[in-house]
Design goal:
The protein contains 9 helices and no strands. It is mainly α. The protein has 2 domains: about 140 residues, no CATH class; about 80 residues.
Length: about 230
């Protein structure tokens, strides 16, 4: 049986990984380490900036739902629906959107809420570009893409889930392009810190899991320390 460890963490990324690993193994009551499938889910949660308290709460709820038969949860993906619901509910509330925004994006209230969200993304991109002139071209292109997605959503050409997926992909590209603009020594420093966050678990991870989790930690560092704006509606 695995009990959550209470140790000081060097940064939030290390804390996120360690707490999710310990919590999941503790609730599952079997196994000594995460599977490759588990690492895919964990890295996605970190990549998307999920709050650790909601992830841990989601794990508790998911395991409580299966009561004594924890073996029904074969990997972390079985808990994803609960975790993602909690995260979306909080994010929608934080930006002041109506609760039915996902089901009725074309309603008058939905369009008003979403227009503010799209404008918020453009404003953050613009601010980052002004503060970092070397990135202005990239932020301008990202703003244009956000505006196109807004038009396609409101015209009915694309549905909400497709827009969210495309914005997430555009965010991936934006972050990658920005990272390449950093000086080599800064990139190496950030890379090293990302690898250090997964070092305690690295010996039990597949190469794909290492790559995915390293990427997720790196993005988290860019947001938290370099102020990169997310291209996300909520």
């Amino acid at each position: 049986m695995h009990a959550p460890l209470e140790v000081p963490f060097e940064d939030p990324e290390t804390e996120f990984i360690s707490q999710v690993v310990e919590k999941y193994l503790h609730l599952r009551q079997r196994g000594l380490f995460l599977s490759p499938k588990d690492w895919v889910v964990l890295s996605c949660w970190l990549l998307w900036g999920y709050d650790i308290d909601l992830v841990l709460k989601g794990l508790d709820i998911a395991f409580a739902d299966v009561e004594e038969d924890s073996a029904r949860i074969r990997d972390l993906s079985y808990t994803s629906r609960v975790v993602e619901r909690l995260v979306r509910e909080r994010r929608i509330m934080q930006v002041g959107m109506s609760e039915d925004i996902l089901q009725k994006p074309q309603s008058a209230q939905g369009q008003a809420d979403l227009s503010k969200a799209f404008e918020r993304i453009r404003r953050k991109l613009s601010t980052f570009g002004r503060k970092n002139p070397w990135a202005e071209g990239l932020t301008e292109k990202a703003q244009e893409y956000v505006s196109r997605m807004e038009l396609k959503l409101f015209s009915g050409e694309l549905d909400m889930e497709t827009v969210l997926t495309r914005l997430a992909r555009r965010e991936d590209r934006f972050f990658s392009d920005i990272f390449k603009k950093f000086p080599q020594d800064e990139r190496e420093k950030l890379d090293g810190r990302a690898l250090k966050s997964i070092e305690p678990h690295r010996g039990r991870m597949s190469e794909d899991a290492i790559k995915r989790t390293h990427r997720a930690v790196l993005r988290s560092l860019l947001i938290r320390e370099k102020g990169l704006p997310r291209i996300s509606l909520f």
